[in-house]
Design a protein that fits this description.
Helix content: 40-55%
Structural class: alpha+beta
Largest sheet: 5 strands, antiparallel
Pfam family, one: TrwC
Strand content: 5-15%
Distance between the termini: 29 Å
Strand order of the largest sheet: 1-3-7-6-2
InterPro entries: TrwC (IPR014862)
Organism: Wenjunlia tyrosinilytica
Radius of gyration: 27 Å
Protein name: TrwC relaxase domain-containing protein
């Protein structure tokens, strides 16, 4: 899904790369490791802690959780894909009478592979980084503990629900790791610019053991596919753990207008975030140049290589390229105490001592105001509506997998609970409710993988508008000296010759997030009205209005509708479709009423003009959406919508301490 702000990155680790990059840079705090210098000596000089082992699979390899990671262990496991004690095993076995070949087999973990692991990089939200860097030692330790618990939670979820070992011809068979996974965690304190950036590199080994005791490799594609859901889980857990420990609350913050907001600590001035993100302006300037080159690029025949507008996916790729092009060289790593002193002095110089010393008090005051009006209640039925509508609109063509719903459910919980802990399985319950009541299975699998539950293809049961299909490039290429048209079919407008490429606005495809927000409001309004006569009223004000006033748009005086036969799915869809225009008008009226100063409304940046455009988009796509849904509504294998019952409400419960048992064991 595009437009997602991720606090977790993922990259593959290859055998050769382990020596060239990780052993010389990452494991020593992103500094520069001199040749032939012992690892621990460089770490102590740089002031970074030694790496620590994590994961449930440590016991099988003779390792202990929290034990220091040595250079020989790294070289064997991640550099060669062998046992961490392979060197010792190969030295001891010949003394016991075994041949060198048998000793080498004893130190191997299955067959050798090129990709030996993945690098998961976790970093807290910018406001948490600010409190960690500028607060006292107690605040710093609380945020570091929350960060570590969030990393452990993500690793446990990967072990329980994500990691699979493929075996057999073509990897036709799949199984979960019998004893869990093995990972090495390395702590870093600063960004390349020298500004505060608490983050951990979690080097996750792909080697895992099957039930029969043989060693295999975890399928890295599954890890990449669930990276967004893993990032959403980390973002939610680290914010909740830190807020509960320090008495804080979270609020939505818009990073890019029209895109999904991120959850940050309430009460921390946003100008401080700009102080830490010094590279943002450099990346933005480079991105403008890359977008200009993108829309004006032509091949050898003079035809455009790409669309004359920048899509969300293209913009995300160009943004990554801009970040790499503007990346400064790494600096020499420094101890944390020295860094914190420099950061605080710089912040005081820029913003004053009064603001910096009162950051935590400001955040706690804002949290008290938020928690007084936001109830710690999650309605599973309402959450399922929001999650399904958002995923339907944000995914091209309205088709999605279960992992998309899971990622959106975690973002929804972070927005609703505002920094409170929740039941570890509540996200799974929301996804199950969405699949049962509001999603339609449209899978037509032709492969074995397509028949697996995680690869089933779904769409929404409602007649929501489909997204505009991507248009093909025009046959003739526009003149590079002419401004690229906003509409690919419209003639290009001349760009003034005295303007540089970055001085004129590059045409971009409209973002989908605003449409997704309005889609959820429209569907929720119709469901509330349609169920009012059957004893179930979707009263948003009683559940989440305080938490999400910009999205839960309902009216207490809504007219009820009579019962309709449950055996007429097509007729129900048509009736919902015919009422879209009316529902959009009501949603628009409610949003206009919320235009008074409000943190939540301003964070989403919903204006009357943009809402009118969104309303027009809903009306235009009505007929096309009805045709799409009619085709699938008559399928005999389509499961019937589940009726929403009163006991579907789930009240928030504080998360109980103890190890995470995984989805299957929690039910």
């Amino acid at each position: 899904m595009c437009g997602v702000v991720s606090m977790m990155d993922i990259a593959k680790i290859t055998a050769g790369q382990m020596y060239r990059y990780y052993m010389c840079r990452v494991v020593v705090g992103d500094g520069r490791r001199p040749a032939r210098t012992p690892l621990r000596e460089v770490q102590e000089e740089a002031g970074v802690p030694a790496g620590r082992w994590m994961g449930r699979g440590l016991a099988v390899l003779g390792l202990v959780a929290g034990e220091e990671v040595t250079e020989a262990q790294l070289r064997s496991l991640f550099g060669e894909g062998r046992h961490p004690y392979a060197e010792r095993i190969e030295a001891d076995r010949p003394a016991a009478g075994q041949t060198p070949a048998a000793a080498r087999r004893a130190g191997a973990l299955g067959r050798r592979v090129k990709v030996t692991g993945v690098d998961l990089v976790f970093r807290p939200q910018p406001t948490l980084n600010l409190l960690w860097a500028l607060g006292d030692d107690k605040t710093r330790e609380a945020i570091e503990a929350a960060h570590e618990r969030a990393v452990e939670r993500v690793l446990t979820w990967i072990e329980d629900d994500v990691a699979v070992i493929r075996f057999g011809a073509g990897g036709v068979y799949r199984t979960r790791p019998a004893h869990g996974l093995v990972a090495a965690r390395f702590r870093h304190y600063e960004a390349r610019s020298g500004m505060p950036l608490l983050h951990d590199h979690l080097l996750l080994s792909v080697k895992a053991q099957r039930l029969d005791g043989t060693w295999g490799s975890v399928h890295t594609e599954a890890l990449y596919e669930t990276a967004v859901a893993a990032s959403a889980l980390y973002n939610e857990v680290v914010m909740a753990e830190a807020c509960e420990a320090l008495g804080l609350a979270s609020e939505p913050r818009t990073v890019t207008a029209g895109r999904r907001p991120v959850m940050d600590v309430a009460g921390v001035p946003h100008e401080l975030i700009g102080w830490t993100a010094r590279r943002s302006e450099q990346i933005a300037a480079c991105l403008e140049e890359l977008e200009h080159e993108y829309v004006t690029a032509v091949d050898g025949d003079g035809k455009p290589r790409f669309l004359p507008v920048v899509s969300e996916r293209a913009r995300a790729k160009l943004n990554r390229i801009a970040a790499k092009m503007t990346r400064p060289p790494k600096q020499r790593a420094r101890p944390l105490a020295q860094l914190r002193a420099w950061w605080k002095a710089s912040a005081i110089l820029n913003f004053g001592v009064e603001l910096i010393d009162s950051l935590l008090e400001r955040a706690r005051a804002a949290a008290a105001a938020i928690r007084s009006r936001v109830a710690a209640v999650v309605d599973v039925a309402l959450a399922a509506v929001d999650v399904t509508a958002m995923v339907f609109v944000m995914n091209g063509g309205g088709r999605f997998h279960r992992r998309h719903l899971l990622a959106e459910a975690r973002r929804h919980l972070a927005l609703v609970l505002r920094g409170r802990r929740r039941d570890p399985c509540l996200d799974e319950h929301i996804v199950d409710a969405a699949l049962a009541a509001y999603c339609l299975d449209i899978s037509e699998p032709k492969t074995l993988r397509g028949r697996m539950s995680q690869y089933r293809l779904y769409t929404a049961r409602w007649a929501l508008p489909d997204l505009e299909p991507a248009r093909r490039p025009p046959a003739t290429v526009p003149d590079p000296d002419r401004q690229a048209p906003a509409d690919p079919g419209a003639p290009a407008a001349h760009r003034p010759p005295h303007q540089e490429p970055g001085q004129w606005q590059t045409p971009r495809v409209p973002l989908r997030y605003d449409r997704a927000v309005l889609a959820g409001a429209v569907v929720r309004e119709k469901l509330r009205t349609a169920t009012a006569g059957r004893g179930r009223v979707y009263d948003a004000a009683a559940h989440q209005q305080a938490a999400m006033p910009e999205q839960l748009l309902t009216h207490r005086d809504a007219d009820t509708v009579p019962d309709r036969p449950e055996n007429e799915p097509t007729e129900r869809l048509r009736r919902l479709q015919d009422a879209f225009t009316e529902a959009a008008d009501r949603a628009h009226t409610a949003l206009r009423a919320l235009e008074e100063p409000s943190t939540d409304v301003e964070a989403l940046n919903l204006t009357a003009e943009r809402l009118r455009r969104l309303q027009d988009a809903f009306t235009k796509a009505a007929d096309r959406a009805r045709t799409t849904m009619d085709r699938y509504a008559d399928r005999e294998d389509a499961p019937a919508p589940r009726k929403v019952r009163e006991d579907d409400q789930r009240v928030h419960r504080r998360e109980q301490p103890g190890p995470h048992q995984g989805r299957g064991a929690s039910r």
